[in-house]
Amino acid sequence: MKQRITYLLEENDAEVGPEQIQVQDNSLSIHDLYGAKEHRVTLGLDELPQELRLVLNQCHELRIRWASQFLYAGLSPFTSRVSPGLHVFYTPRRKGHDAQICQLLGRVFGNELACESVERSFINVPILSERFSSTASFQYYSLWPSLKKFVTYVEHAVHESQQAKIRSLLDVNQLDVDCDIISHACILNAYWAEPTGNKHWKELIETKKTSGTLEVGILTNEKPLEPEELSLSGVLAVVGEDDRPKATKFSFPSRHHPVPASDLPTYFYTHIKSPAGLHPTLQLTFPSGTKSLIPPNPSCALHAHLTLPSTLLIDKYQLQDPLFLSSQRLRRLHSVAGETDLEAPNWAISRWGSAVLLELAHPSAPPSTPQDGATAGAEAGAGAETAAAAAAADWTVSIPLHLRYLEPRANASGMSAVDVPWPVVFWACAAEEGTKMGMNPFDRTNLGYDGLFGTRTMFYHVPPAVQAAALVERVPVPVLDLGRARYVELGTVVAVVVGFAWVVWKLLAVGGKEGERAQGVKGE
Which GO terms fall under molecular function for this chain's record (predicted)? Predict the structure, then answer.
C-alpha cells in the first residue's frame, strides 16, 4: 500500500513555519494550515476484500467519479470537474461480459441505485478521438447525494483503528476510484476543498513500517514557465524515513487548468427558465460575460457537458438547425450518447439517461447568421449606439430540454419534481505544436468529456458561481394523480362514445340524403 497526502495552500498562506509541521520517527503532525487536501491511496488487488477481487479480475478497467452537489473550490491542480453525483466508467475484460458490476455498486454505494445490469442500465461511451485510448466503454450515472453507504462499507473492511479516518470521507467534495487489470491495482483519491467546519487542518499522520510508504506534501502554486504546465513548491516528507521536511519545487504538464485571472472573474450559474412546462429551458448565465468571457487563446472553444437523467433529453434533430442554434447562442452539438427516443415515456426507459457535449457561442465568436448588405449596415449603426451597454451585459446561453411522461402517482397536487445537475463548462484549447503531455502526478481521466477531444487538448474550467447553494436545479413536472385517474378514465370513455356516436350519426345522415336523391332521380 502506498499513500500520498497533499495539502495545497492558498497564495496568502504560502509560508509554512517550522512550528506548523513536525516530523517524528513514524508520525508527522501538522496544524494551523488552511487550504485544500488530497489523500491518495494505492492498493494492490490482492489487498482488497475477496468479493471485490472476484469482480475486478473480470474488468479491464473500472473508474468511479463522485462529486458533491454543494459548491466547492477547485484549486490547481484539482480544477477538473464532473457534474454532481456518481459516475461509473467500465470496460469489461471480455466483450459482452457483465462482471456483476451493478451488484457490486449496490453493495458498496446502496441497493437503491437504479442499476440492473450493464446491458440494461449503462450507456455506450462515444469516442470522437481514437487516439485517446484510455476512455472506458460504458458509463453509468446517478445523482447520488451522499457517500454514507460507501463509508459504512469501507469501515467494515478496515481495522478499527482506521475507522475514524474513513469517516472523514463523509465530508469530501470529490472521490475517485480507479482500478485496472494492467497495473493490477486500485487507486482511491479523496479531495477536500477546505478543512472540515471551515477551520484549519490539525492532524496527526501515523504509519507503520509494514504499512507501505506514506508521503506528505505541503505545497502552493507558483507561476509556471510554460502555458501548458503547472508549477508547485513547498515541502515534502516521507513519514518513517525523513527526519525533517525537505524543500521542493517541480513543474509538470497538465490538461486541466483554471481560467486565466482577469479584472472580471469568469464564472457561471444555471437556472431553469420559468415557466418550465414540458419543454424546460436550461439557461447558463455568465455575469458580465461580454467582458469576462475571453478565450485563453484564439484556438479555444467554449463547451458545456451535460449529464441528463432519463426523465430529460435533448432533441438532437432540433440542434442541427443553424438558425435555431444561433437564436439560443449555441454553435453546435458535438456529441450525444444514451437515451434519445423522443416518444418513449420514462417508465419505458431502462438506461440512466444521456450525456451531451455542446459548443457554446461567446462574445468574441458570436453565432453567425446570413445577412444582406442593408441589414448589416443597419446593425452596425445600432451596435455603435448600444456598445457601452452591451459591454457590461450578462451573456446567457439557452439549452432546450424535453421532459418525458413520468409514472402516475398518488399525489394531490398533481406535480412531481426532477433534479438536473449543473453541467461542466470549460474552454477546450489546442496545445501548441511540440507540446508533450508527459507524466502528471495529479492527472484525472475518464471524466465523460475528455475522451471526446484529442490527447493534446487543454481544458480551462469555468467555475460555478459562489452564490450557488447547490449545483442541482429542480424542475416541477405535472403527473397523473392516481386518486383522480377514474375521472380521466370516465371522461375518456364518454369522449370516445360521444365521438363514435356523432360519426355514426353523420354517416347515417349522409346515407339517408343519398338515398332520397336516388329515389328522386328514379321517379323522374
Answer: mannosyltransferase activity
